[in-house]
Amino acid sequence: MKILFVYLFQALLQLIYLPLKAFCKVQDQVVYLSRQSNEKSLDMQLLEQAIEEKAPGTRQVFRLQMMEDGFAGKLRYFGHLVGDMKALASSKVVIVDTYSIAVSCLRHKAGVQVVQMWHALGAVKKFGLQSLGTKEGRDARLSHAMHMHRGYDYVLCPSAATARFYMEAFGCPAEKIKICSLPRVDDIVTPKEGLAQRFYAENPGLSDRRLVLYLPTFRDREAYVAQELKLAFAEQETYRLVVRTHPLSKVKPDPEFSIHGNYSTYELMQLADAIVTDYSACAFEASLLMKPLYFFVPDYDLYMRDRGLNVDLRQEMPAATFTDADALADSLRAAAYDYDALYAFQSKYVENTKNNNAAILANFVLTLLQKKDSDS
User: Fold this and answer.
1) Which pLDDT belongs to residue 373?
2) Within 13 Å of residue 367, how many CA atoms lie on the same side as its CB?
3) Residue 1: HSE in the Cβ half-sphere, 13 Å Cα cutoff
4) Where in the chain is the domain with CATH 3.40.50.11820?
5) What is the Cα–Cα distance from 20 to 251, expressed in whole angstroms?
6) Rounded Cα gap, residues 13 and 2, in angstroms
7) What sign results for the dihedral spanned by CA atoms 45, 249, 124, 196?
8) SS3 label, residue 350
9) Number of H helices and number of E strands within the chain?
């Protein structure tokens, strides 16, 4: 029944889209589509700025809307989807950072260039088409009916090593892969002037403690796994564990392991003395700072069975991968970290670690606009 509804829904979208394609005039504009957030992501902000600096006046349109729960929320999203279709029918370049119904389910005008700028800097865990049919993945039949991740002309990828994962996850051939780090890399590797002074002014009790930042992925067993780490660091006088949960997490923040003030995850990374994660792609971001990076994965075998991994953490970062929280804390105190392994990890999965990624991507997007001008 669900599959039948999907086909009827797509037929309705095509009927609405046909006159939009016929009557909407294509403009020299870039449209950003996202269901990931209602606000511009950091990558979008930095790319928008870089494009404006290189080609002032370039029209950039943002269509950002998360799908809300309930019938009323879905009805509102349908109205937003019609707006997405109008933007698609009148844009030369389309940038998405997640699955887009309008992009993948519809047939577009010839020459429209769609760029997938995925919202993560790589993939430790399997995702997209890789995880279909697994316990934590999406329903395979429904996803195929929704043409999941079809319609991309280019897929941005931070390294050649990551390309294989992306080709599987997005179902795209090698020629559609564009090796290019995300603009956020620029922000991560650029020191923030006055950040430490502001932080310790708001958190004076932490000035004599070494900060251990825990960044878990969004998954089942999240609260239980976090509790193990909290217990291991509860009596530590030298170290202070700070927990920053995933934006989609429903786990309530614990005041004992939180901080005062409004700080982004990347700012906390710069402030931290060590970073702990699990299967999150933030591991690649953290590696850019060359600070001790640890993986706390007590459910490693279970996660491999239920979801699957692209990166074998036990093989690539053996001395920094732990299933026991106390053993991780002991290793941290020992202060004998394998920085060579960390550098190899960073170099393998993020090829460009310089502060020029937004500029490189802006040049690429502008080239697509110019190419279409010359072809029309």
Assistant:
1) 44
2) 7
3) 0
4) 2-185+355-375
5) 43
6) 16
7) positive
8) coil
9) 16, 11
Give the neighbor-by-neighbor strand order of the sheet with 321-322: 239-243, 210-215, 274-277, 293-296, 321-322
Q: Which two tokens stand for residue 337?
A: 């970290």
Q: How far apart are CA 346 and CA 292, in angstroms?
A: 12
Residue from 190, 184, 189 nearest 45 by CA: 184
Determine the pLDDT at residue 248: 64
From 242, 246, 284, 245, select the one nearest 120 (Cα to Cα): 284
CATH number for the region 191-349 comes to 3.40.50.12580
Residues near 55 by Cβ (< 8 Å), separated by ≥ 6? Answer: 366
Distance CA 222, CA 216 (A): 8
Question: Per-residue pLDDT averaged across 11-32, rounded?
Answer: 94
Q: Which of 145-149, 224-228, 245-249, 259-263 has the lowest mean pLDDT?
A: 245-249
**Structure confidence by residue, pLDDT tens digits, 288-332:** 999 999 999 999 998 998 899 999 999 999 999 999 999 999 999
Q: Quick one: pLDDT at residue 293?
A: 98
Q: Would you say residue 214 has pLDDT above 60?
A: yes
The DSSP letter of residue 90 is T
Which residue in 221, 243, 219 sits closest to 309, CA to CA?
219
DSSP string, 21-86: HHHSPPEEEEEEEESS-SS--HHHHHHHHHHHHHSTT-EEEEEE-PPPSHHHHHHHHHHHHHHHHH
- The yes-or-no verdict on residue 236 having pLDDT over 80 is no
Kindly report the average pLDDT of the chain as a whole number: 92
For tokens 């005062």, what's the residue? 260
The full length of the chain comes to 376
Distances (CA, A) of 261 to 74, 192, 193, 258, 271: 35, 16, 17, 10, 13
The ranges of the chain annotated as CATH 3.40.50.12580 are 191-349
Where would I find the beta strands (DSSP E) of 97-237?
A: 113-116, 154-157, 177-179, 210-215
Q: Which two tokens stand for residue 304?
A: 């491999």
CA distance 272 to 244: 12
Residue range 2-185+355-375 forms a domain whose CATH class is alpha beta
Task: Specify the 3-state DSSP secondary structure of 173.
Answer: coil
Strand, helix or coil at 122? coil
Instruction: Give the DSSP H/E element, type plus range, for residue 94.
Output: strand 91-96
Give yes or no for residue 221 having a pLDDT over 80: no
